[in-house]
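Contributing new records

If you add data, match the layout below exactly. Sequence lines come first and carry their own label; structure lines follow with theirs. Keep one chain per record. Anything else will be rejected by the validation script.
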Amino acid sequence: FFFDFPHCDMSDNEHLVSPEDDEVPEPDLKPGRAWSCCLKITFGVSLVLNVSACVGFAFFFFWIRKIQKMDKPAHPQPKPDPVNSSCPFGNGPAPLALALTLRSTDTLGMCWPKIAHEARLAAPYVVLADDWWLNDTALSPVYAGANRSFQLQNLLPGVSYSLQVQAWPWRSKEPTSSHVFRFQTQERAFCGNAKDLVVYRDAQQLDMPSKVKSCMMKSGTHVDDSRDCIVKALGLSPGCANCWAQEFWCIMHHCAFKCITPT
């Protein structure tokens, strides 16, 4: 609508007032032309207002989406590490030992050499391991059988485990034990490492719940402040503490008001 509209005189529909002068033009103009002029002006103004409103709403919703969006960087889990997919021990006699055949974030695969034993024994080999989560260094049986390989599963990431194998040789009244081997699982992103898991394991002694709550209440929905507070209070890594801060941010923005609002 980039053109000049003549002024409209609503007092008399039969007259059109020119912007150059106030003289009444010749009465040969059509009576409805003044109304047509005003309708065009009204339509143009309405169109401009509607476009402005649409643009404003578009920016408003874009701003809301930017606030609600949580950037979650991709952290693919590491692939299992086939340290030695085939057991390095042959069928010949060899000192009793353990060899690592698979290592992932939650699994340790191992094998051991063949030891001559009585055929009647159903479980000539026994694998023992400690319990890191319970902070128990005593070795307990986790496998007993005739196979020469075993996968210890459902482990914690980034943790070092103590393992030992025992065998009952031919005509022996006592089992033969290998040295104690220490194998570590692969680490995972964020909290999947031994340093952070120690904090989780000792949560009660460190008063972890109340310290995390205190940091959240002081920092509100400021993710960076919450993360830094948790790092200082508990010693968690920034990546792990950021998970806690992001979780609290999500709860406050998407869940809290729905939970406290009666329905």
